[in-house]
Amino acid sequence: MRKSIIGEDTLLAERETSETWLDLVALAAVEVTSEDPAYPIEAALVSSGTGGWRAAAPGEQIVRLRFDSAQRVRHIRLEVDERSLERTQELTLSWRGETGAFHEIVRQQWNFSPSGSTHECENYRVTLDAVRALELRIKPDIGDGASEAIASLTKLRVG
User: Fold this and answer.
1) 20 to 30 A Cα–Cα from 113, which one of 6, 83, 152, 154?
2) Predicted confidence (pLDDT) per residue in 77-106, tens digit
3) CATH number for the domain harbouring residue 46
4) Could you report the per-residue pLDDT of 47-57, keeping only the tens digit for each?
5) pTM of the model
6) Number of compact structural domains in the chain
7) What are φ and ψ of residue 98, in 5° steps?
8) Do the domain assignments include residue 15?
């Protein structure tokens, strides 16, 4: 019998290639509250991007995608990496239709630790029609308020 162990990296690569992601560069305008010039938002939104996006300063940040025309959204994937600072981050993902306010999809916290958890990968399966905007709010550290944590986003994919 031939046998092999399928690693998480293999499964992740298979899912990435089989998923049909929206071309965010062609379909949407992006707004950010701040941006480190060395880590532009485009690096997190395009498949060939490396390094991801980083804010220019500490504190809560917003990444907002405004679609040129309404989109059907079934899958949202985001990844964040933090290898140097222990912190608890809070993400809030919301959407807006043709009119009205933003509606929360998910709000969650993640604990980063350089000696343990350094990578957050979230896959949200949704059923959203006529999406005009997606908004990601990132509180990089919900701790004591004195943190110098910088918000970052390694990848954001929408399908």
Assistant:
1) 6
2) 999 999 999 999 999 999 999 988 999 999
3) 2.60.120.260
4) 887 899 999 99
5) 0.86
6) 1
7) -60, -40
8) no
